[in-house]
Design brief:
elongated; about 90 residues; single chain
Length: about 90
């Protein structure tokens, strides 16, 4: 079956892009990073391999679950991060 390629060939001149200095790159459409952005940032420790996690059933109070879900995608990862931080903080005990 012949026809058009699945993805179009890039017309970008990659060699010319590699020659650009940082000052020559237009970053005017990127908003400046504010202290508020850092305050709301989520620190992650790299990509965990799927084998390190186990699927369980965990019962949470409805208001706690709704609060985490309202924070958006990744709420289960956030719950895991908080539990890990708690575990690490109490490791010495």
């Amino acid at each position: 079956m012949r026809g058009k390629p699945i993805s179009p060939i890039s017309e970008t001149d990659w060699d010319a892009l590699e020659l650009l200095t940082d000052d020559q790159i237009d970053v005017s459409d990127i908003p400046p990073i504010s202290p508020e952005m850092f305050a709301n940032a989520l620190v992650r420790r790299g990509i965990a391999t799927p084998a390190t996690k186990r699927q369980i059933t965990l019962r949470l109070d409805a208001d706690v679950l709704e609060w985490f879900r309202a924070r958006g995608r990744g709420y289960q990862t956030q719950i895991n991060s908080i539990l890990r931080a708690y575990k690490d903080a109490h490791k010495a005990n």
